[in-house]
Amino acid sequence: MTVPAPRDGAAADASTALKTDETVPAPPDETNGGEGPGDVVLRLTDVVKTFPGVRALDGVQLEVRAGEVHCLLGQNGAGKSTLIKTLAGVHRADGGEITWLGEPFAPATPQAAMRAGIATIYQELDLVDDLSVAENAFLGHEDSKLGFTRRRSTASRTREILARLGHAEIPPRQAVRSLPAAGKQVVSMARALSHEARLIVMDEPSAVLAHDEVENLFRIIRELTAQGIAVIYISHRLEEIREIGDRVTVLKDGRTTAANLPARGTPTRDLVSRMTGRTIEYVFPPRRPAEQRDPLLVVDGLGRTGEFADASLTVAPGEIVGIAGLVGSGRSELLETIFGARTADTGTVTLDGARITSVGRAVRNGMGMAPEERKSQALLLDEPVYKNMTLASFSNFAKVGFTDVAGERKAAEKTADALELRPRDVNRPIRTLSGGNQQKVVVGRWLLEDTKLLLLDEPTRGVDVGARAELYQVIHDLAERGVGVLLVSSEVPEVLGLADRVLVMREGRIIHEAAAGDIDEDAVLDMIMAGSLTTESILEGEPA
Amino acid sequence: MTTQTAPPEAPIKQQRRKLDENTLRNLGLVGVLVLLIVVGIITKPDLYSDPTWVKNNFLTILQQASAIGVVTVGMTFVIIGGGIDLSVGAIIALAGVWATTLATQSYGAGGMIFTALVVGIAVGLVNGVLISYGKLVPFIATLAMLVAARGLAAQISGKQTQVSANDFINSLASERLLGIPLLVWILFLVVAAGWVLLNRTTFGRRTVAVGGNPEAARLAGINVKRHTLLLYALSGLCCGIGAIMLTSQATSAQAAMANLYELDAIAAAIIGGTLLSGGRGTIVGALFGVLVFSTITNLFAINNLSTEVQNMVKGAIIVLAVLIQQFRYKSLTQLFKR
């Protein structure tokens, strides 16, 4: 069913005229609540959800019909997760209207949403590894009599559901632990069906799957929709949306920027342009003139099976190199391998002539890293700021094995000044600091060492706008001092604004390299997500 | 893609069917038991040539395993549910002492059993409330209970040994049914009930869910806090039963009874394949774990070796068992990462 796409015109018009009637083409069947395919089952009007300091949803419109696959598209932080959690009963909307099957809908708990017929399959599958397939499918609403589980009927009901999903070959009594990721996903869907779900929300279901398994997933989705079940499908991969989706709604900064675009007919350029051009102002320090220097870090042909392959890059002293890529593109794995935290299968990492094969060597040779999971990978949350600051260097302060607390404090205070840490009290437990200031400490830790190269993984995640600008300044100051910086971020504007040179990563490979000034957000996003139109759009893209 | 009925295209890859991990471990434990008996035969061939002695010795091993076995069943549930109960020995002492006060004994066997069970459940409930609603770490809450309950037991008994004058209670250890001591029957009953509870009821299934993935359990609508509370109450109940059994064996109770039972019970559960981090474990394995310890004790006794040597061997066995378990768990998780 390939409908010839109306080139540019129609779709673009529909979405520029947003917030008018065209956003939600008023269906005539709203009152009858009928069951025929194509009836609107879910409608969101101006939904708002505020968290302290953030307006995560700021007027979302969404309309889902029975038996359709409705795709949600948007950059990280656009509000997709908040939206599906609101539907799943994890969050409650502050404003706007949600209508489900013709009735107002505001689930207070995940169970209430389930009972109403909305099932959510989260990215990290919420299964219990040591229970069987059938036990997981019916967890929380077991088929039982007087507390005794009815194993036979549970198994046969599960078998029925699995057959419906086209996976009758999975034995209901097999432990979930022994299933591959694709099998676990089938079990998650079986759980959704065991609740008689009429809408299944799938959050990046293909992220954990290999290519042939994605085909399987699509076949299941087609069977579900043929039974009249509606599916909300979230994915960053445009080709998937083209293949499985019926309509697309695009979110940006918590707002619907385009609703109900045809999934197949809308040109990629149009979709991407709805997602980009963020309204949040990024304040980047002015770019310094580039100077040519010999590379400090040389990564040559680095690869790890199943994660990334053939990655080669260089970073010169004082240079900021940014890697743009989605979660799952292998970017964090690449960074951790460069740092020696993962063992490379192929290739080499050289820093200033020294081979890096372990974290110990990396640190001794002047490499530092601020990992993605700040709280779990980088901080001792209950310890004071100064101890966190000197974590990588406290042996420099120690005398014959005894720590020199006064010396540590003094050094930490100096760094705190340089970082404009707020509050500046280095004796406070780091838990009490804001995300941005915690991140400053993580970065500042390496200022105390003679760090030559700093690896930053999502440095501004969970950091508010004001602190972001300060962090950017800190990163720039480091580069001024001759430190090389290699930075990973899923926020394209950040990479473009901060880095001197940009590498684009997709599905484990570095697919493009350019000076930051020679490439724009649309082009990068296009490469990250679709890949198909890359060359075209780079060539046609606005001259920088 | 022309027909409506789409046949499964790429079936989900099945893991190679191997012997089930639990069966494998249980076979290993049976092997250890056989090995211990062989060592016994080699070191004391004269004793083992007497069939009546062999039979009676076998029953002695079972009888000595009975009380700790019952406690281990409760402990296994708590550990599978993601917790730990360090207070089991202390609960037994408190329940045993409370059940053998003169006042309680005046109500007869029924009163004594009732008291022991109620005290056990009550202390378990206190543990559970502190842990699930007071948000105390299980280790700390039950460690505090370990100290407090023994203190209360000493207070009640006035540090005296309280003799049980009840014939029915005392007969549990001395009488036999079908040639098997009553205490051993109780052990079998509790193990059987524990197995059914873990493997055939919603309670057991939810225990695995709560210990294995609390967030998934919560999202599936399971009341994780209440379930945790019930797990500690169950452990307390098992301690109450154990208190009666120990009292019957010694025909007395005192504040120092069931010393270090928490260690034996945890060790037996772990050797039996219960994961200390929760979410996995078996009742049958736990029973084998108890039997291994009890057989070792017996082996040392018939060879007149000191309890000091025995404790050292026990410690070595625990470390070895956990090392093996960790090694296997690691290699398993690595397999799945690939």
UniProtKB/TrEMBL annotation, chain B:
Task: Name any one Pfam family assigned in the record.
Answer: BPD_transp_2
Coiled-coil annotated residue ranges, if any: none
Where this protein primarily resides, as one coarse class?
A: membrane
Alphabetically sorted, this entry's keywords are: Cell membrane, Membrane, Transmembrane, Transmembrane helix
Indicate where this protein resides in the cell. Answer: Cell membrane
Q: Which InterPro entries does the annotation name? A: ABC_transp_permease (IPR001851)
Q: Tell me the membrane topology, using the record's own terms.
A: Multi-pass membrane protein
- Where are the bilayer-spanning segments? 23-41, 61-79, 86-103, 109-130, 137-157, 177-198, 229-246, 283-306
> Does the record carry Transmembrane as a key word?
yes
Q: What is this protein called?
A: ABC transporter permease
Recorded source organism is Paractinoplanes aksuensis
The uppermost taxa in this organism's lineage are:
Bacteria, Bacillati, Actinomycetota, Actinomycetes, Micromonosporales
